[in-house]
Write a structure and sequence with these properties.
The complex is a heterodimer of chains A (276) and B (344). Chain A is an alpha/beta fold. Helix content of chain A is 34%, strand content 18%. In chain A, helix 4 links the parallel strand 6 and strand 7. About 4% of the residues of chain A have low confidence. Chain B is α/β, with parallel strands linked by helices. In chain B, 46% of the residues lie in helices and 16% in strands. In chain B, strands 1, 2, 3, 4, 5, 6, 7 and 8 form an eight-stranded mixed sheet that branches. In chain B, helix 9 links the parallel strand 5 and strand 6. In chain B, helix 3 packs across helix 11 and helix 4 crosses helix 13. The chains are: A alpha/beta (276), B alpha/beta (344). The interface between A and B is large, with 66 and 66 residues.
């Protein structure tokens, strides 16, 4: 189910403000933006993990200067001429202008602590990281590249789910990426799925949940149906911490939770155990 | 008695009085009522209304044809949800010579929203799996109205693995508004269950045919619909989200569901055109709910023929084609390469 996730407000993402200060939405502290940036966009006071744009995430993860972007020529079109309150064609333009990205996924090769790998990172700044044809195609090419060159693959999920404006084409990306991961699995390659806030809907229900290892950042919202949909359906209070990383770990669907500052060493460790 | 002259064939429906009338079917219902009234008069008072009745029936048939040939996407959604539309267990009764139901996922429970079992269908022995919404209130509640929990998807996969092991083709019939959105469903990993099903179906070493018979709601649908051939009944719908859900998110209210239904391009005609489905299976005039037998027959014919074709292929070729089928779905622009890649 494609989910409704509140679009990132400026207080939650990078690229915030012209201003020098920002407020932590969790503990409410006023933070000096530069300090937060240097702290990998984590609140120094309460360790709240802010959402990270794809390029910033790639820089955080890869050894400096090693990221080589691939499949960057793939651009979205409006295949169904979808119009809601706004035409999808116009939405694409304004999202591209706002995010300076063509769509919601950045992919390529890089190194983490000297270990070569293929990376694909979803971008919450473009239509809330939703998956349409472009995201699905770039993911699939990344997966196929990893299988072909027997490289480890890391996918960072950050998404509201499948993109409604491409309807069933978006739904098909779930099958397409899952099928590609089946081949990667057959090739014996390592796939690390990193779940960040938020990972929901058709993204959770496809590649995100197919990692050999599934890592989550602390307190990320991870689920299939969004909390609002569930509440609307069953009109029942949701348990405390429902659909957060820690909840999923306790229910057995996340292998471990890793603080942002430890992600590089954790990925390197897994590659040392399981990479080809 | 003049009734003898009335050909039953003139009327596509059998029990109009018991049939639920959809909003846009009101003019049809009025004509049906008039026919019934005249028929009653004719038999009670021994008056001859043969000509009038014939005229009314002709009007009825042409209006029915006109209505159903020009259904709006939102009307299609309503037809797909018609309470008397044949469901999984109806189809079993109508076209399976035998059905041995298999219960449970051997992990947690037996989800009644997805039914699975060994079946004989048009000369084939198959593993038949599908959503069942329930026909009366009690059954509907037991089936969660066709919204499956993770255990339903895991039961489906367990049965598919059995089919693979014993060389039986898999047939899935999709009819769900979506996977169940609830606490237990999330706690037991409905997203993981759907994801694993798609991955495993993409490499399952036996032929798979999937047909969306009613509603094809999102991940809950595709969780059992990664197949060599994917078809839809003519008046089924298949989409990333229900029109109501889409309206709620993009229009901030459910009253725009008809607009969302149109925007989502969820009809069999649209999806055939985009290349997402291979076949739209024609329904009897006025929809499957007017004539479940004919609908079941068409469905059975399609499945039988498709299985015959698929069984002739080497499994390696089949798997390669199945992969490519989904691999090629997606429409985007790529500079420097082909001007535009499009759906296969």
């Amino acid at each position: 189910m494609a989910e409704s996730i509140t679009p990132p407000t400026t207080s939650k993402t990078e690229g915030v403000p012209a201003g020098l200060w920002m407020r932590c939405p969790d503990c409410g502290d006023m933070l000096f933006k530069k300090v937060v940036d240097e702290n990998l966009l984590v609140c120094p006071a309460c360790q709240y993990h802010f959402r990270v744009g794809a390029r910033a995430r790639m820089n955080q993860l890869c050894d400096e200067g090693t990221f080589e972007e691939l499949f960057s020529d793939i651009e979205p079109v409006d295949p169904l001429e979808f119009v809601d309150k706004k035409a999808y064609a116009d939405r694409i333009k304004s999202e591209q202008f706002k995010s300076k990205e063509k769509d919601a996924l950045l992919s390529g090769r890089g190194f983490i602590k000297g270990r070569p790998l293929v990376l694909a990172v979803m971008d919450p700044n473009f239509m809330m990281g939703s998956m349409g044809s472009v995201v699905g195609e770039k993911l699939t090419r990344s997966i196929e590249l990893a299988a072909e060159e027997l490289l480890p693959l890391v996918i960072v999920s950050c998404s509201g789910g499948a993109r409604m404006q491409e309807s069933t084409l978006s739904l098909m990306q779930m099958a397409k990426t899952s099928a590609a991961l089946g081949r990667l699995d057959d090739a014996g390659c390592l796939f690390i799925s990193l779940l960040t806030d938020p990972t929901t809907g058709g993204v959770t229900a496809s590649f995100s949940m197919l990692g050999d290892f599934i890592i989550a950042e602390p307190k990320a919202l991870i689920g299939f149906a969004g909390p609002r949909t569930i509440w609307n359906t069953i009109k029942q209070e949701l348990p405390e911490g429902f659909q957060r990383s820690e909840f999923l770990r306790d229910k057995g669907f996340v292998d471990f939770i890793v603080h942002r500052k430890d992600l590089r060493s954790e990925i390197a460790r897994l590659i040392d155990y399981c990479g080809k | 008695m003049a009734t003898a002259t009335l050909e039953p064939k003139d009327v596509p429906e059998t029990r109009p009085a018991l049939r639920h009338t959809l909003g846009f079917e009101q003019p049809l219902a009025k004509l049906e009522a008039q026919v019934q009234e005249l028929e009653a008069l004719q038999s009670n008072k021994r008056l001859d209304y043969t000509a009038e009745i014939r005229q009314l029936r002709n009007n009825y048939t042409s209006l029915l044809k006109k209505t159903y040939e020009n259904l709006t996407p939102w009307e299609t959604v309503q037809v797909a949800r018609h309470p008397q539309r044949p469901q999984f267990r109806d189809y079993i009764d109508l076209f399976c010579r035998e059905f041995r139901e298999i219960h449970g996922d051997r992990r947690f429970a037996d989800d009644k929203a997805i039914v699975a079992g060994l079946a004989r269908l048009g000369g084939h022995k198959v593993m038949l799996i599908g959503h069942h919404k329930g026909r009366d209130t009690k059954e509907k509640i037991a089936c969660n109205f066709g919204c499956a929990h993770p255990e339903g998807y895991r039961k489906a996969l367990r049965c598919m693995k059995l089919a693979e092991k014993f060389g039986l083709p898999v047939v899935t019939l999709v009819d769900t508004a979506g996977a169940y959105p609830g606490i237990g469903s999330e706690e037991r990993g409905v997203a993981e269950a759907i994801a694993v099903n798609m991955m495993e179906m993409s490499r399952l070493r036996t032929p798979i045919v999937s047909v969306v018979t009613g509603e094809g709601g999102s991940g809950g649908a595709i969780g059992i619909a990664v197949a060599d051939k994917v078809a839809m009944m003519e008046h089924a719908w298949y989409s990333v989200i229900s029109p109501e859900g889409c309206s709620g998110i993009l229009w901030k209210g459910s009253e725009n569901a008809p607009d969302a239904a149109a925007a989502l391009k969820l009809t069999s005609r649209d999806l055939k055109q985009i290349g997402i489905i291979d076949t739209a299976i024609p329904e009897p005039l006025g929809g499957a709910h007017r004539d479940p037998h004919t609908a079941a027959h068409s469905l059975e014919q399609y499945i039988s023929k498709t299985l015959r074709d698929l069984k002739r292929c080497k499994i390696e070729n089949l798997l390669e084609r199945r992969y490519e089928k989904f691999r090629n779905l997606g429409i985007y622009l790529e500079k420097g390469a082909r001007a535009s890649a499009r759906a296969g």
